[in-house]
Structure formats: structure tokens, C-alpha cells
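C-alpha cells incoming
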């Protein structure tokens, strides 16, 4: 169902905290602002054996009523293997059994340090894996994950059966993570998982997911509550001194 208006709820840009807004998108109008976003087109599976093609179709990437909607469908689709900007040939035509949407600010907007936040309603269902994350603008220290990756939010299988979860709501947790170390497979990561606030229906609500990144420290927040801190003495790149 298409919402009639943008959601109420926690503000992604809290006042009185000293932050100065540098970039935002309220998704006004009926089309994605391509001066701010690029729609990824790829079918390779993202290194995770994902089963969808990301497309540039309106049915997968829609702007409506002050919302960006990234929508997945069970449908066979054939598209290019690797995304725009891939290091080398973009590969073969690949057929997957699902389609979905993915947008990024690659080569359009990037920052070292700041607060990065979004108000998001997450999809539910076995096999879903929404994410809000950051990759480096350049591979200064080499390939993934030696140059780092900051995962502000990930959620897997919300609403599905989940024995370690709180209550009877099924899977009701999200997570944050930092990936670092050497080039794959010699990489590592730090992650924490937390239960969404709001009880059994929390997965049906909008939440603000944020990371605050400053020199020597990254903090993760959900709805203004700090849930994880990682300091610079906990991460490294194996290639930093080479």
C-alpha cells in the first residue's frame, strides 16, 4: 500500500546537538534526484549470493509522497552482472528470480566524519536483508575490506521465527558493524545486534538509524539511543604501512 504522506516519528536531524546540516533529501516530487543519487544496476549477488537483480525501474525504485520506496518482487529478470564503476568489465548477463532497488551516493557525495542518519521503515519476511551502509570513496588501502566499511543498519528476516529474540514477535533485531583488516578473505569485523524499541509491533514502525563518526571513534544509534561504540585502537588495515 502506498503511504499517503511521509511518516511522523523521530527526526533524523536532532536539534541542539551541535550538528550543521550538510546534505539531505526529503524526496519531494515524483522522481529520484539524480544529482544526489545513483541507482545501481547489477545482478551479481553483492558477494553474499543475493538472489535479486537491482534495477533502475520505477517499480523497484519509487519516489512518492515524500518517501523513497525500494521494492522487491519475485520475478525472473535478466540484467548486467556487475554494477556501474566496477573495476574492469561489467561481466555477463545474469538471470535472477527476484528484483529489488538500491541507491547510492557514489562519486556524488562523500564525507570523512559526521553524522549519517536516515528514518527507515524496514521490510519484513524470510530472506529480506535491508541495509544502510558506507563504503570508502577510494580504495586507499586496497580492496574490500582493507579500506573499511561502516554498516549503519542491517536487518535480516524481520518477523520470521527467531528462537533468541525477545518476546513473540519473531525476528525483531537490527545490527551495526565495522569491517576492516586485510583484503578478502583476510578481513575481519566488529558487530553488535539490538532489539528494536517499541515492543511486538516495532518492526512495523519507522526508526532513525545513525552513525556518528569522528576522529578515533564511531558511535551507532537507533532513535537517539547509543548502542555501540568502536574506537580506532580496535580497527586497522593490514595495508596501511605498505
Amino acid at each position: 500500500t502506498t503511504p499517503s504522506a511521509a511518516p511522523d516519528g523521530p527526526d533524523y536531524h536532532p536539534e541542539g546537538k551541535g550538528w550543521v546540516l550538510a546534505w539531505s533529501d526529503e524526496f519531494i516530487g515524483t522522481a529520484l534526484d539524480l544529482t544526489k543519487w545513483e541507482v545501481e544496476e547489477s545482478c551479481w549477488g553483492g558477494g553474499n549470493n543475493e538472489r535479486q537483480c537491482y534495477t533502475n525501474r520505477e517499480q523497484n525504485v519509487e519516489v512518492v509522497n515524500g518517501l523513497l520506496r525500494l521494492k522487491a518482487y519475485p520475478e525472473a529478470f535478466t540484467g548486467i552482472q556487475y554494477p556501474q564503476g566496477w573495476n574492469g568489465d561489467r561481466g555477463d548477463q545474469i538471470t535472477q528470480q527476484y528484483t529489488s532497488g538500491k541507491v547510492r551516493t557514489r562519486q556524488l557525495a562523500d564525507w570523512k566524519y559526521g553524522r549519517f542518519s536516515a528514518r527507515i521503515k524496514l521490510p519484513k519476511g524470510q530472506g529480506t536483508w535491508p541495509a544502510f551502509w558506507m563504503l570508502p570513496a577510494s580504495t586507499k588501502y586496497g580492496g574490500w575490506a582493507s579500506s573499511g566499511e561502516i554498516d549503519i543498519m542491517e536487518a535480516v528476516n524481520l518477523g520470521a521465527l527467531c528462537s533468541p529474540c525477545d518476546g513473540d514477535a519473531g525476528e525483531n533485531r537490527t545490527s551495526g558493524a565495522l569491517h576492516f583488516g586485510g583484503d578478502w578473505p583476510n578481513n575481519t569485523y566488529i558487530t553488535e545486534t539490538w532489539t528494536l524499541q517499541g515492543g511486538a509491533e516495532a518492526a512495523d514502525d519507522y526508526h532513525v538509524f545513525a552513525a556518528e563518526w569522528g576522529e578515533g571513534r564511531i558511535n551507532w544509534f537507533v532513535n537517539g539511543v547509543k548502542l555501540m561504540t568502536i574506537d580506532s585502537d580496535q580497527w586497522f588495515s593490514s595495508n596501511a604501512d605498505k
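note: The CA atoms of residues 141 and 242 lie 9 Å apart.
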